[in-house]
Amino acid sequence: MLSKGLVVELRQAEKVRKILSKKNLIKKSLKIERDNKFLYIPIEKIPKELSSYEIIKKEFKELKKDLTSYKETLSIPEKHKKLLPTSYDIIGNIIIIKLKDELLDYKNKIGESLIRTNKNIKTVCLTNPVTGELRTREIEIIAGKNCTKTIHKEFGLEFEVDISKTYFSPRLATERKRIADLVKKDEIVVDMFAGVAPFSIIIAKYAKPKMVIAIDKNKKASHYAINNIKRNNVLDKVEYITSDAKDIEKILGRIGLKADRIIMNLPFSSYSFFKYALRVMKNLCIIHYYEILKEEKIKKRLNDLKKIADKNEILLTNVITRKIKTYTPREFYIGIDITAKRKMPM
Fold first, then answer.
1. How far apart are CA 323 and CA 143, in angstroms?
2. Interhelix angle 219-231/198-206, nearest 10 degrees
3. Residue 215 CB contacts under 8 Å (≥ 6 apart), including other chains
4. Measured between alpha carbons, how far is 18 from 296 in angstroms, rounded to an integer?
5. Mean pLDDT (whole number) for 215-241
6. Burial (CB count within 10 angstroms: exposed 0-12, middle 13-18, buried 19+), residue 242
7. In this model, does residue 37 exceed pLDDT 90?
8. Domains (ranges, CATH) in the chain?
9. Per-residue confidence band for 132, with pLDDT thresholds at 50, 70 and 90
10. To the nearest whole percent, how much of the chain has pLDDT over 90?
11. CA-CA distance, 282 to 188, in Å (whole number)?
12. Would you tell me the crossing angle of helices 198-206 and 173-182 to the nearest 10 degrees?
């Protein structure tokens, strides 16, 4: 394609390219070319600071356009394209997507487009929000293989998941690694709502805990969790118990342990379990608490947690609140790091 081109000596090429790139003046559809002495950069226009450089008209090769967005291959009315989600979850070779009601008539087309533009994807699933203590979601396969099982890789580890029977969020990968990096040598860590055990396994693999106690009442999640513990060679560090987290005091009492660190990742119900977590802590304990809240409710929730702690003669200090991700336009997935200290040591 014929275009204006900037002629630049090779020794100055990187400096000039950066200036043009910063100002978004390089024609991205055309290939930058070179010979033994010069670089030829296809440009929209020349900025003042580069006006001393030679401008030529030249035939540039067109770059083959990659289909980076599923929207580019999708044939649906423009008014509906504006409603298409800009993000979705990828778990192993499965995409999980939420669609507005207006898009449901096009769900299969959308699924097929996602497979075309994501080379490693075998299945696309439509989902509703996660519900209940077992954290399961309604899944409908809208394109690809009729399979909801997959292997998800994260920080060099592998997690076997059935997305129709168990909960797993790839968006918490960074958070899981962050917690693992905080765990100190010989800590007793309790993962109250372990699911398929990603928190527990990452901690066992990348920290040096004395033991991780992983608990979940979902028997199907337990099946995959135990497989994952074996798969990632942490059987000596993770004890998985299929039980209700409300029984945590009995569970830890039977094995004679108290917690240095507790993970409470049950974002719609963590609050109702907070009092149980306090019963199994050592004199000093770090609690990683997660909940989905509207911004205006966060301050009240912190006060509520402090009231529960006060009733149990426990002081909450160094309370740090973070917005991990947006759940809905007005709700956030909140992470709260809490240092809990018994007023009267045991």
1. 33
2. 20
3. 190, 191, 192, 193, 194, 240, 241, 242, 243, 245, 248, 251
4. 43
5. 96
6. middle
7. no
8. 2-59 (3.30.70.2580), 70-147 (3.30.300.110), 169-342 (3.40.50.150)
9. low
10. 63
11. 10
12. 40
Tokens representing 216 are 């979940």
Contact 221, 167 (CB under 8 A): yes
CA neighbor of 289 nearest in space, from 302, 299, 280, 279: 302
Distance of CA 35 to the CA centre of its chain: 45
Single-letter amino acid code for the residue at 183: V
What does the DSSP 8-state code read for residue 94?
Answer: E
**Contact by Cβ (8 Å): 102, 74:** no
Token output for 214: 């992983």
- CA separation, residue 216 to residues 86, 248, 291 (Å): 33, 10, 17
pLDDT exceeds cutoff 70 at 224: yes
For residue 241, the model assigns a pLDDT of 96
Average pLDDT over residues 100-119: 91
DSSP characters for 31-75?
--EE-SSEEEEEBS---GGGTTSEEEEEE-PBPPPP--SGGGG--
DSSP codes, 194-233: -TT-HHHHHHHHHS--SEEEEEES-HHHHHHHHHHHHHTT
